[in-house]
Amino acid sequence: MGLDVLRRLALASGTALAVLCGAALSSRAADSLTAGNANPNDWPEYHRTWNAWRYSPLEEVNTKNVQKLHVAWIHQPGDITSGLLSTPLVADGVFYYVAANDNVFALNGATGETIWHYQPKLAPVASQSFYASQIRNISMGHGFVYLGTLDGRVVAIDQKTGKEAWSTQLTDLKKCYGCLFSSTPVLAGDVLVGGTTGGDQPIAGQIFGVDALTGKLLWTLKTTKDDPKSWPGDTGAVGGSTAWNVGTYDPTSDTVFIGVGNAAPDFYWNDRHGDNLYAATVLALDPKTGNIKWHRQEVPGDHYDYDAVYEALVVDEGKRQLIVHLSKSGFVFVMDKADGKLANVWPLAQNYNWVKSIDPKTGELAGQVGDYPLGKETVVCPYLLGVRSWNPGAYNPKTKLWYTNAMEACETLIPAKQDVSKIGIAGLYLGVEKLEAVKPPDAPASARLDARDPITGKLKWSVPYSIPGLGGVLTTGGGLVFNGDPQGLVHAYDAENGKELWHFNVGSGVRAGIISYAVNGKQYIAVPAGWGSLAPGFMASAFPEVGKLQGGAAMVVFALD
């Protein structure tokens, strides 16, 4: 039998198998357990796999030998502005990451030796932006590394050579303040899907679909809905609502799950009474067209800065899959992946007063705080960074626990109307005359790492932190949970009970995502060290020790002997 015949038979068998697997959610090809264990040596996308687990199946490093971890190599990008915010990617032994000001590196994953370095020539206007220098991720596929730039472009870089293949300008920062890519669009088949930053500025948010092979713009979705009941008058034209964080692509349903941020002005609702769609909303999108398959608005009429941009964690529950989605509001929304129907809502925050409760079946808000009184101080909990910032948690299928950082802080604010015409390119459209982070009314400001059942919220264990952890959590098949803290300590915990088994000082706080991968059968743990981003400035008044922390930027990679 010839090779061509064998290939055709294999293809036919594979097609038939795919049809059978797609028929039942519990099939091994479609469930999130299979996805979470795929390609154990690589970390090919932001959360490693489409279900956003941030779980590495690798077991060489485990609870019995983690104390023997040592530094294998270190790479310094040279630019320490804003620290390191990006989760690295790894494929076939090559390590990719992006540092401040869009510096992209490809390294030997075993040695840290530089293979290539790419940096686009940014338009001068990029340095004037409020978000200048800050970049959270890269994407990869089709032989390219994709970069969303700080001057409003999407760029494809040849994965082997580091040469630019194409560049597409999507926005004009001089006309659309903050319309830059601090997060690179996610690859969804042949389409890159993502939105710009600037949700705290007087702009109207957009999500773009770009041909991943050619860079051609395929579609644009406006995220301030054209509906006078939703956005009275012309408030939608400056309503913020940007999808500024990394979405996820589910190939089993051909759907991009992406969250939309806060409405603007953040705290002055008086002129935009309405639900303000699609602010504070999780969107399920068709990547080919940008059409909305379903949406769930978690905070209608958002005037709290309660973005819905965090990870869409997917877990299996019998014959259905559930999305577990943390909002800045302090609540976790558990919904059916197929249609967004609620399965549960539970509070991660211990201190919240913007609402009395949320119906776990309907999502209806009870006792929601309306307009803040003008000229008077109001204390709102949680504060604008939420119960957690954008740093993702991690889910371990062996323990069935979700590990996430959390913090307890509030804010004192006085609302105020702003003149949009007087807000410059680096100005914010917050709608306040005073905004200060404070401790909760009846408790100190605090922080912790929690291990919880993601569906019910039941707490298994918790570790206290003096300053909130702002790095992405990693969990592994070796029964470990890795988390970095703002002081620069990287901790390894037993995933079952939270006992600390190892720690190491990397010299500067961790703000990015920790990952694990393997080269030639050897497991590595990569820690992007380098304290930065905008969050520390906002939290300093509630956590004064933040002002003493060291900056820096270094990729520190660990392994066993």
UniProtKB/TrEMBL annotation:
Pfam families: PQQ. SMART domains: PQQ. Its cofactor is pyrroloquinoline quinone. It comes from the Bacteria. GO terms for cellular component: outer membrane-bounded periplasmic space. Residues 1-18 form the signal peptide. One of its GO terms (molecular function) is oxidoreductase activity. InterPro entries: PQQ_b-propeller_rpt, PQQ_rpt_dom, Quinoprotein_ADH-like_sf, Quinoprotein_DH_CS. Keywords: Oxidoreductase, PQQ, Signal. The keyword Glycoprotein does not apply. The keyword NAD does not apply. Residues 43-347, 456-525 form the Pyrrolo-quinoline quinone repeat domain. Belongs to the bacterial PQQ dehydrogenase family. This is Pyrrolo-quinoline quinone. It comes from Methylocella tundrae.
